[in-house]
């Protein structure tokens, strides 16, 4: 490594420092890793995220037998789903800052190891209290799988390069033939095997931390204490990071109508996912005579629907890029919302359809949720510029709390109101929310101009500055999604 290519003398009030940086093409820079290493890292993390998500659906498949064996109500068993999902609303605010100080890899491996361990006491549980406590702790550590992954993808892929539901299918058969405890044991085996692979293959991707380690090594080797990485001079305290991820997110939620209503809209759509984890098997087993194992097969339609939704998001990206080009290269946040208007209309239609047929609508529901999710995340990221992470944090909190709450009453609601009327009520709520994307497409620009938080972004657009990629690691609770550009 040639120092002349990687170092620059800088004077500060604390003295002179030699600031090192990545030389062009440096193979230790995660952005310069070869494709094999990048894809290995990406696939390992995607599998981890998938397996963590499957634990939610897996648990729901065994609730009936578990509560019967432990002698408690089904509602008590649903609390296990609530605490797991609720932890995803809270813990990400703290995991992000932790990864900035300790590095992503240590947080990944440490949290995922603990996530795996909590399957054991759940599988051996003798009372519902043990199950609920362990599910909460499992969720706390599992949150790392969705909190930090977007930042890792930003670490190793360029903006241009960045660009499902299967647990209920097999867990019904596991529960039917082996019992609910084996759902936990099998998940432990699968997650344990993946953890072993990550322990061997996963490497640190946070470039600023790697550069700081290099500077530390150079200080030790040369004896010159002036060598510093930029992050060592610009370090933000963990207190400031926590403040940004909590206080500012709360302020945006209560002061910004766009953030509030979009958060509510996305939260409702996301809550439908977890509601249907509870009631789809209930309706098909109880209402149509499916066996317990076959009761999970309707989720195949969710897989099909997910691919339709993914295809719509690719077309949405094309529309957004076209709008940006027509606007002289200046991004138009409202152009993120075109396909969400389709999702907004189809969501209540699909809920009505499910309510009064209970067969054909499920593929419609999933792409609607997917399109809404994609549009809202990206609109908030574009529309709030430097405050984007806080805006996304706010909707993430509302979304996960609502998703955690819905399963607590979904079974009772569908039993007491009957399937048709319970679904109709949900469809009517979705209908009330239909105008949201249409209003934002028409009036979004003027609304943002009046916002003190979105004003910075508006000014940047007015001067045609090139939009920067949202660095999801800088504010921790951007949790479940990175920017899709």
UniProtKB/TrEMBL annotation:
UniProt keyword annotations, A-Z: Membrane, Transmembrane, Transmembrane helix
Positions of the UniProt region annotated as Disordered: 465-485
N-terminal signal peptide: none
Cellular component GO terms, alphabetical: plasma membrane
A molecular-function term among this protein's GO annotations: transmembrane transporter activity
Compositionally biased tracts (Polar residues): 475-485
Domain of life per record: Eukaryota
Topology of this chain in the membrane: Multi-pass membrane protein
Main localization, broad class: membrane
Database matches in InterPro entries: MFS, MFS_trans_sf
Subcellular location: Membrane
Entry's transmembrane regions: 39-64, 76-95, 107-125, 132-153, 182-202, 258-285, 297-316, 337-356, 421-441
CDD domains: MFS_Tpo1_MDR_like
Entry-linked PANTHER family: MAJOR FACILITATOR SUPERFAMILY, MAJOR FACILITATOR SUPERFAMILY (MFS) PROFILE DOMAIN-CONTAINING PROTEIN
Name of the protein in its database record: MFS general substrate transporter
Organism from which the protein derives: Gymnopus androsaceus JB14
């Amino acid at each position: 490594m040639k120092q002349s290519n990687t170092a620059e003398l800088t004077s500060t009030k604390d003295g002179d420092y030699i600031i090192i940086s990545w030389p062009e093409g440096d193979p230790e820079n995660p952005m310069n890793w070869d494709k094999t290493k990048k894809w290995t890292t990406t696939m390992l993390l995607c599998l981890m995220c998938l397996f963590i998500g499957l634990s939610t659906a897996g648990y729901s498949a065994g609730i009936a037998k578990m509560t019967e064996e432990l002698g408690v109500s089904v509602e008590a068993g649903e609390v296990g789903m609530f605490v797991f999902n609720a932890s995803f609303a809270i813990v990400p605010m703290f995991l992000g800052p932790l990864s900035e100080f300790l590095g992503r890899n240590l947080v990944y491996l440490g949290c995922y190891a603990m996530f795996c361990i909590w399957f054991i006491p759940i599988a051996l549980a003798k009372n519902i209290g043990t199950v609920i406590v362990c599910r909460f702790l499992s969720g706390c550590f599992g949150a790392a799988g969705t909190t930090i992954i977007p930042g890792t993808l930003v670490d190793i892929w360029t903006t241009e390069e960045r660009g499902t539901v299967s647990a209920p299918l097999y867990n019904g058969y596991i529960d039917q033939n082996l019992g609910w405890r084996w759902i936990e044991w099998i998940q432990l085996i699968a997650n344990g095997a993946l953890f072993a692979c990550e322990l061997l293959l996963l490497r640190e991707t946070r470039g600023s931390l790697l550069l700081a380690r290099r500077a530390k090594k150079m200080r030790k080797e040369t004896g010159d204490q002036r060598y510093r990485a930029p992050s060592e001079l610009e370090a933000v305290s963990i207190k400031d990071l926590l403040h940004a991820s909590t206080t500012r997110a709360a302020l945006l939620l209560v002061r910004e109508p766009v953030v509030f209503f979009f958060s509510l809209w996305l939260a409702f759509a996301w809550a439908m996912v977890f509601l249907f984890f509870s009631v789809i098997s209930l309706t098909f087993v109880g209402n149509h005579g499916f066996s317990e194992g076959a009761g999970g097969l309707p989720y195949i339609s969710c897989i099909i629907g997910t691919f339709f939704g993914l295809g719509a998001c690719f077309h949405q990206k094309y529309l957004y890029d076209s709008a940006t080009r027509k606007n002289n290269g200046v991004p138009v946040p409202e152009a993120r919302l075109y396909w969400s208007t389709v999702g907004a209309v189809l969501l209540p239609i699909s809920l009505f359809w499910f309510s009064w047929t209970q067969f054909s609508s499920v593929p419609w529901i999933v792409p609607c949720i997917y399109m809404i999710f994609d549009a809202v995340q990206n609109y908030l990221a574009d529309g709030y510029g430097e405050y984007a992470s806080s805006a996304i944090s706010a909707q993430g909190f509302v979304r996960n709390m609502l998703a955690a709450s819905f399963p607590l009453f979904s079974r009772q609601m569908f039993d007491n109101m009957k399937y048709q009327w319970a679904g109709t009520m949900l469809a009517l709520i979705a209908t009330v929310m239909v105008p949201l994307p249409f209003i934002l497409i028409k009036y979004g620009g003027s609304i943002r101009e009046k916002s003190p938080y979105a004003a910075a972004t508006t000014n940047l657009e007015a001067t045609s500055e090139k939009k920067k990629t949202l660095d999801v690691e800088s504010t921790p609770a951007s949790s479940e999604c990175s920017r899709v550009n």
